[in-house]
Amino acid sequence: MATRRHEEQLEESLGARLAATRKLTLDLAAPLSDADATIQPHPDASPAKWHLAHTTWFFETFVLRDHVPGYRLHDERWPYLFNSYYEGEGDRHARPRRGMLSRPSLDEVREWRRAVDQALQDALPNLPAAALKLVELGIQHEQQHQELFLTDILATFAENPLEPVYGAMDPPPCHPTEPLAWIAGREGLVEIGASSGFSFDCERPRHRALLHPHRIANRCITNGEWSDFIADGGYSTPTHWLSEGWDWVKAERIERPLYWHDDGTHFTLAGRREINLAAPIAHISYYEADAFACWAGARLPTETEWEDAFSSSDPAIGHQLDRAGPVVSRPGGGPFGDVWQWTRSAFLPYPGFAPEEGTVGEYNGKFMCGQFVLKGASCATPRGHSRASYRNFFQPSARWQFTGVRLARDA
Question: Are 332 and 172 in contact (CB under 8 A)?
Fold first, then answer.
C-alpha cells in the first residue's frame, strides 16, 4: 500500500509539473500576435509559433502516439511541419523555412496544445514507466524551448525598425561590480557529470577527469570591461583572434556584441535601453569570448574547471565564486542566473556515453561535432533548469543566445 501511494504521489507531482510547464509556454506567447509568432529572423532561430507546436509534437509523438492505445493524431499533416531533426520520424519541413508556415494559425496551435494536454493528463495514471520517463524528458525539453522562445523573439523584434517591446520587463538585478579576482581551483583527479536527479544523456556517465593547476575568475566579464576591449581595438587586432574567428569578424563586419548600438544603448526584450556597464556581457560568440580572453592575458575555462568550481564541496571556493552555492537558479548574480558561459571545451561524448534508447536518442549525441560547451544558465533559463553538470552547446559563431564569458588562467 505504501509503495502504491508513493507511486501516486510521483504521478501527481509529474502531472503538476507538466501542467505548469505547458502553461508557462502559453504565458510566454500571450503578448504576441499571429504575425509576431510566425516570423523567423534567421535560420538558427525559430518562430514562436513553431516552438509552441514542436513541443506539443514531442509529447503527442513520443508519449501519446507510442504509449496510449487507440490515440489518434490531432492532425496527421502536422508532424511533417513540426518535427525538428529526428531522422527516425521521417521527412520534415526545412528548418530555414519555418517562417513560411502561416498555417496552422497561432490559435489552431493553441487548440492543439489544449487537446494534447488533456490527453496527457488523462493518460498519466496508466502510463508505463518508460512513458513516464518520456514525460519527464518532455518537460525538460520544453523548458529548453522556453529559453529559445525568448531569445528567438528578441532576435525577431530586433529586426523590426520600430523596435517593438515584448514586455515591460525590468532588467535582472545587477550586483555592484567587484574587482576581478582569481580563485585557485582544485588540482588532480575529480569527478564530473550527472550524479543524481534528472539529467540529459550527454551529462552522463559521471566520470573522472584531471585538473591541472589553474585559477578561475570570481565573476563574469562586464559590459564596461567589454567596452574597454572595443576601445583598445579588440575587434580590429587580428592577433587576438583564432583564424576562423578573424575570418568571421571580417566577413560579417562584426564590431561589437549583438544588439549593441554605437550610441551607448542596446536592444532588449524591454526595448532599447542604455547599456549597464556593470552588468555581465551577453550575446557574444565563442570567437569573441576567446579573443577577449587573449586580449586580457587569460583564457576560457575548461568544462571540467567550471563544473568542478560550481559543484565543489569546498565551501571556500563556492563562497568566493560569486558567493553562489552549487546548483541554484536565480535571476541576477551568480553562475546560474545571468548568462551562459563559454568554455574552451568541445562538445564531445563523455567516456562510456550511451544515447537514450529509441528515436529520442538523437537528442544530443548527433550534435557532438563542431560545437563548444557552455555552462551555467542565463536570465532566460526557467527556474530549476540549471545544474553544474548541464552541458549547453552552440557553434562558435552563435551569439543570439544570452552568452557571456568568465575567464581562467593557468596557475
Answer: yes
Question: Can you give the pLDDT at residue 168?
Answer: 62
Cell of residue 5, nine digits: 501511494
Tally of CA atoms within 13 A in the half-sphere of 179 that contains its CB: 2
At residue 109, what are phi and psi to the nearest 5 degrees?
-65, -40
**Cα of 132 vs its chain's centroid, Å:** 24
Sign of the dihedral defined by the CA atoms of residues 73, 79, 83, 87, in that order: positive
Give the dihedral sign, CA 332/334/339/340: negative
Q: What is the pTM of this model?
A: 0.92
Query: Given pLDDT bands bounded at 50, 70 and 90, which one contains residue 167?
Result: confident
Q: C-alpha cell of 13? A: 507531482
Task: State how far the alpha carbon of 308 is from the alpha carbons of 18, 55, 185, 300, in Å.
Answer: 31, 32, 8, 15
Q: What number is the average pLDDT over the span 219-230?
A: 97
